[in-house]
Amino acid sequence: MTANYFGRSDVALPGFKKFFSAASKEERDHAEQLMDYLNSRDNYKKLLICYFMTRQWDSNKGNCNLSHILEHEFLDEQVKSIKEFGDYIRQLKRAGDGLGEYYFDQKLQIVIKQAC
């Protein structure tokens, strides 16, 4: 797991560790939500169909529920996460190695505490 790398004594960036641990937990929660939804509707076989095929399949069958859940519950959040990662990457490039990296790590710890 990526988070464990940042917890090593030779890396020692606890903010990064917390950030990646939280991101991993969130993705695991999304997977469980999707599995629970599919199991409740007895649609576990739909997991084998990729997203775009699922959209087409659902619209042909008149079943919009899965498409709606994928688009609104997961896709919107993924777009926000991609934006957040992009912002963080840009900030890290500006901050540079060493002290900038340390400062960014401290900022991540504060952001994670506020999110919890």
From TrEMBL:
Keywords, sorted A to Z: Iron, Iron storage, Metal-binding, Oxidoreductase
Entry-linked PROSITE patterns: FERRITIN_LIKE (PS50905)
Pfam families recorded: Ferritin (PF00210)
Substrates-to-products reaction catalysed: 4 Fe(2+) + O2 + 4 H(+) = 4 Fe(3+) + 2 H2O
Entry superkingdom: Eukaryota
Residues in Ferritin-like diiron domain copies: 1-116
Enzyme class: oxidoreductase
SUPFAM superfamilies: Ferritin-like
Entry keyword annotation includes Cell wall biogenesis/degradation: no
Keyword Iron: yes
The protein's Enzyme Commission number: 1.16.3.1
Record's function text: Stores iron in a soluble, non-toxic, readily available form. Important for iron homeostasis. Iron is taken up in the ferrous form and deposited as ferric hydroxides after oxidation. Stores iron in a soluble, non-toxic, readily available form. Important for iron homeostasis. Has ferroxidase activity. Iron is taken up in the ferrous form and deposited as ferric hydroxides after oxidation.
Family to which this protein belongs: Belongs to the ferritin family.
Protein name: Ferritin
Organism: Tegillarca granosa
